[in-house]
Amino acid sequence: MLHSIFTDYLPQIFAAGFKYTITLAIISFILGLIIALVTALVRISDKGGGFLIIKAIFRFYVWLFRSTPLLVQLFIVYFGLPYLKIPGLLPNGIKLAPFTAGIITFSLNTGAYASETIRAAIQSVPREQWEAAASIGMNRGKTLRRIILPQALKVSIPPLSNSFIGLVKDTSLAASITIVEMFEVSQQIAAENYQPLIMYSLVALVYALFCSVLSWLQGWLEKASSRHSKESEAEA
Fold this sequence. Notes:
By secondary structure, the protein is mainly alpha-helical. It has helices spanning 2-44, 51-67, 70-80, 98-124, 127-135, 140-170, 182-193, 196-235. The radius of gyration is 22 Å and the shape is flat.
């Protein structure tokens, strides 16, 4: 019985994992990092005037997504937006496919959390390096690209890697909006074979396997980054 469960159902869970779980996590994380970088740069900007309104909007966005549960955010985007009906503009509301709704929600959620990581990493670089770059005629944009961001990247690798691993696990919530990822597949199978303990334990094992591989990649990436930094310092 147990052998047949492994041979019959484990391939289905892995297939859903690679097709939906990992794909959903990778796409959302990439988009989330783009959102996070833009948000962090806006929030550390020292521009005044009308730009303060933009900063306030981004600050509100970070507060909103960090202060509300991810599951609630998924429900609002997928189940709630269709009811956002505006005559003449959105007469039928905003209806999104489950996968699209998942991408949008996970990206925005990741962007809010990762923006704080990136902002802290940028601000950890000594202010003197900005001043030194300015003294040799480098503008703010070039200083950011060539000096500040490479150093901030090294600092942010561990927390961002942890965020990605957390995102892989959080994709299980996508089952609530009918995305057929690993957890949803295990639920469907459990409803057929009446073995919820075995099926949920099996999908937990697959999640643990995925996250263990990602943790190993995180450690390798941190060592590679550290080795590269030491080689750069030696050359300097």
